[in-house]
Amino acid sequence: MKKVGNHNSNSRKMFLGLAMMLTFSFSSFAQDAAPAAATEAAPAAATAGGDPVKGKALFNSNCAACHKLDAKSTGPALRGVAEKHDMAWIYKWVHNSSEVIKSGDAAAVKLFEENNKSVMTPFPQLSEADIDNIIAYTSEPKAEPAAAAGGAATPPGANVEGTGSNNNVILGVLALVLVVLVVMLFMVNNVLRKVAKANGIEVAPKAECTPIWKAFVKNQFLVLVSSIFLLLASGYFVYGFLMQVGVDQDYQPIQPIHYSHKIHAGDNEINCKYCHSAARVSKNAGIPSLNVCMNCHKNISEVAETTATAEYSKAFYDAQIQKLYDAVGWDKTTQSYTGKQQPVKWVRIHNLPDFVYFNHSQHVTVAGIECQTCHGPVETYEIQKQFAPLTMGWCVNCHRKTEVKMEGNGYYTKIHEELSKKYGVDKLTEAQMGGLECGKCHY
Amino acid sequence: MSSNKKYWKSVEELENGSIVEALRNNEFVEEIPADEFLGNADAMSSSSTSRRDFLKYVGFSTAAATLAACEGPVNKSIPYVLQPEQIIPGVADYYATSVFDGFDFANLLVKTREGRPIKIDNNTISGAKFAANARIHASILSLYDNMRLKESKVEGKNSDWSVVNSKIKSSIADAKAKGGQVVFLTNTLASPSTEKLIADFIGANPNAKHVIYDAVSSSEALDAFEAVYGERALVDYDFAKASLIVSVGADFLGDWQGGGYDAGYAQGRIPKNGKMSRHFQLEANMTLSGAAADKRLPMSVANQKQALVHIYNVVTGSAVAVNLAPEFKAEVTKAAQQLKAAGSKGLLVSGIQDKNAQLLVLAINQVLASEAFTTVGVREIRKGSDAKVTQLINDMKAGSVHTLIMSGVNPAYTLADSSSFVEGLKKVKTSVALSLKEDETASIATIAAPVPHYLEAWGDLVLTKGTYSLTQPTIRPLFKTKQFQDVLMSINGLTGTYYDYLKAFSSSFIAGSTWNKVLHDGVFVGAPAALSGGAADYTAAATALAKSKAANGLELVLYTKTGMGDGQQANNPWLQEFPDPITRVSWDNYVTVANADAKTLGLSNEIVANGGLNGSYATITTADGVKLENVPVIVQPGQAVGTVGLALGYGRKAALKEEMQVGLNAYALYKGFNDVQSVELVKADGEHEFACVQGQKTLMGRGDIIKETSLEIFNTKDSAIWNETPKVSLNHKEVEATTVDLWESFDRSVGHHFNLSIDLNACTGCGACVIACHAENNVPVVGKSEVRRSRDMHWLRIDRYYSSEETFEGDNERKEGIAGLSSSLSTFNEMEKASDNPQVAFQPVMCQHCNHAPCETVCPVAATSHGRQGQNHMAYNRCVGTRYCANNCPYKVRRFNWFLYNKNSEFDYHMNDDLGRMVLNPDVNVRSRGVMEKCSMCIQMTQATILNAKREGREVVDGEFQTACSAACSSGAMIFGDVNDKASKVAKLAADERSYHLLEHVGTKPNVVYHVKVRNT
């Protein structure tokens, strides 16, 4: 019976696999549907008076730094702004808002007061036609992508869960079928035996032979060889186990804020050293302080629809940005700092032992090594992990191979001349520079 | 052939066989109470834990612990929410500041990391005159003292500043109403803004007054100077300009008149063009100045007074009758005549606490027209008046003082007659102690209010007239503290912050510069004028001084130790563990007794079996009957016969960790603010266990350890005579040791090659390097009992050697003269004893970074290895603690971590609390138990310098490479740099004909170079 059970569980796994495949295919369908619906909605909302497509481009290059369509940012939300003010007023305002305020225009003053008295940059370079285009863009009705997609309205997260419960049903049914099959097999077998017995057919019993394990024990050579093999194999695994103690390659802890390097460094191509600026001058690369985040996130309070993935919905990402706001004490609605701060306790991923001295600036600024050399393709990491093993062997191997970047660095002029004469080479490796000496990293 | 002999193992077995028999049969002398717990069947059965369960638990917990050990801990990394613009994590910031704590003063550069100060460096900008001494270097640790007063206390109960301020204000109003006195009792402030605030208050409140109290008084010198020049100040001597220095009882390399003279003195001590200064020292205690002197005359203070008058006679041609002991006459006359001959290049200083003596100092220097003696830019660091303090205590006892506001003073501890102060304090209506700690005074004052450490505070200082230094905070106040100045502003009714007040106030002092510039530089130098000198009746002073009587009995000369000073920082473990440069004893004060006196009094020192130093106890009784019992005794070579020395600053109890409550309070004997007292010394029972780091006293004629010669030989003879390279036998021929080698040499011509040059002529033994090394390298403190076991962890020690003959030269000759075994035994035995007036030499010894290092070859795990840049590396994580390296090191500079010294309550020093650990240098590893450590030649600093140059794409400039010790050395004795840079200072020093290596015959080829000590005898 036990054997049967095992078979059953194997087949269960197979079915599980099948079910998973189905799940993923379902969910990817659901994802495709949403953006399609959004693009469909856009042209339908075009308005007269300007070209909303051109307007969008202008909006993104000129206005988006301070304005959003549907939410207050540094400036007010701009959707439907044409309904609030007449076009002549808007032209004047855009060309030079402070003049309008100075003239005592009630609406302008009110607007100025409402927005923390922040002065809007004058845009004299925008023609009235340009402004028309922008207004046309801002007058488009808000796209309701989720609603437009109709049946696939449920958010992706929920979708996955839904298919999950479907899988269970399918799995159950399949298991049942399998059990029925097994039972049937037994029954057929039994019936056949009975038939054979009734017909007087003797089922020939198998010839008695030495069990394989007895034969094995008798063959001493085989025992010796296999025990040596076993010892070696276990030695290999024990060694392997011990060597990974304290090595945290692929360490991928859950962070208090789900920060995606893929979105920042990958999709948006932000330079690593924009945020990790200390890497240029300090031993620490530095986790950016939250005021650095706010350089951009003051204006980016939510992710674009297209940023959301099957795994992480827009709502999920927006919640992460909200976590940042909570930590730094930024009130989105009033666009001001509340002063209530709460430092973010990130989980440290790269933990070098205390007895190693490592300096980022040495590698980043002096040697000009790409961050990715040691940190891996960070721009593809949704969740940051430790790419390199950070073992001494790993460091040393790189020091052996890597040629020191000496050109144009006045420090190296003399030493390069002397060392290249000594070693008879033009390019010097870090090891030849003395980079393998214990005291260069351990003090 | 069986024997009938009975063998017995002990006398007891022979005499009383039955006991031994019984003991042999019973393994345990007392019966094991097994029945008590095994016999109790009920208890056993009721226990739910069976033996099997127990074993299961053991097995499970072992397995769990093993598994858990494989799992790394989860570390948190918490960035700033709003990062200050100036702070980049991982990059050090430096702030220029200045300190004056009433005793020590300096112009500093404070290194901060991530917003916390971790190291004190000297401000080397021009105009910043005063370098940090050992105590200032250690003061960074006092900032993180967990025993600091953290909250205001009113009548012993925790309170806050608003209550304190209102109480002070109402008390002042009450005093005004009742006509009582309001008195500010402060240390010398040297802060014009603070003085202005006090003066303003006194101007508005005529019933108020300001009393300045220096715990260690320089009152007589101030009185004398005031009498002649009309200003209460001290001369800022320029020792560099003096070619002949006569010091009568002035330890100017120590704390005499504030100290800080070593840099100038050392300049003149390095022979240049065949010339160096000559220094006569007449003193009672063996001091740093006496150790450096070319000729030292040990004499009692009574004799010093006569000698001073005698010198006055010779220099000025007067004929005041003197009573100088005949044995000193010739030498003192010689010194006086040379002083007179030196003329304007001569200088006389004196530490005799007598106004007449101090007048004679002025007279002699005036007659000499000494260049070193100048009234331009006089020192304003001592202002105290003994008479006014005495008056105040009388007023307090009379009940006429209503409100007493104290800042920077601890009279309940530092006054000889502290009981009358305490008694007087009870009659004071409101007493306020503004203090860093809840010390002896703060704990009995009505209000104890916490003030910030100088590294947390604003301030201004006029250390010498014409200069203006600023003190700026380098960290936010750690506790709920307020500055004395804040309190003054509050009672003056001023609003705003002291910072704003200071900024506005400073403008009159920094004409021609700006606040930002002065704050950046730390100091502003104006153009001070010389004081117009009057004159006094010097002959009368000389006559009076010559008539002063000698003390009955022994003469006790009180002094301050290089480590402890006036005792403000008694809770600083670095200073407690700092070995005194002369006696090499840490964690104690003691009475120093001359050998001859020790013999007559039956006092002795001995090295006991475990290598520790033991000493007798003595009871000191002053003429007034004040007793100090069980004072440990050190027999001090060079102590003048008939005098004994005792250091102030020890024996504190309040606000001190238990480990730091060492020594005895010598202030109790500081009667009448006089450092000379007549006492009686009686041997007491018992033996004191010292923590002395150097058992051996003399050099035993090993002239190749400290090479010393006289200026005459140095000038006239070839360097092979006075700086002989040791010879060894090679193929039965005598060759120079430096030419013989077991190993092949590595090529060291490429890149940097670091050398440290130490000039024994310039080294005064001040110990600033020792503490700087502690701070830079996270050197642990091990405590008294461990130091006694020779387990001190100092990476850098300053060896002190006495000569056993009158001079080291005599030692060498005596050793050369040994013939035969018996003569060798007896002679060496005698040479172990130091002379009664020995020559003294200091030698800083750290890892010599041998190019052919004996330690490297014996390490079984290659944990110590050599770098191309000349440094001997120590990989702590590789070390398994065999200690072979330490055994094979000829210099004994390796230190072993016998215990875990951090986060270990057995070693309850700064590394055991979170606050104290803030001082740790994040660039240097904190070592763990079981590993060897040693001087790394500050590889973290040299590497950082190289990296900076690489980042900026330039070569390293000479002088950029520094170690903690070389940066701390203000006397120029330690110079560090790259010898492959042929133009560098250190390359020239290493090639100098005075240079030699320690134990050169061993062939280790060290990278530390010493320079032959030349004495101008």
Automatic annotation (TrEMBL), chain A:
Keywords: Electron transport, Heme, Iron, Membrane, Metal-binding, Signal, Transmembrane, Transmembrane helix, Transport. Residues 1-30 form the signal peptide. The keyword Signal applies. Coiled coil: none annotated. Residues 50-142 form the Cytochrome c domain. GO terms for molecular function: electron transfer activity; heme binding; metal ion binding. The chain crosses the membrane at residues 169-188, 221-242. The keyword Iron applies. PANTHER family: CYTOCHROME C7-LIKE DOMAIN-CONTAINING PROTEIN (PTHR39425:SF1), LIPOPROTEIN CYTOCHROME C (PTHR39425). This is C-type cytochrome. It comes from Flavobacterium sufflavum.
UniProtKB/TrEMBL annotation, chain B:
It comes from the Bacteria. Gene3D superfamilies: 3.30.70.20, 3.40.50.740, Formate dehydrogenase/DMSO reductase (3.30.2070.10). CDD domains: PsrB. InterPro entries: 4Fe4S_Fe-S-bd, TAT_var_transloc_signal_dom. Residues 754-784, 838-869, 870-899 form the 4Fe-4S ferredoxin-type domain. This is 4Fe-4S dicluster domain-containing protein.
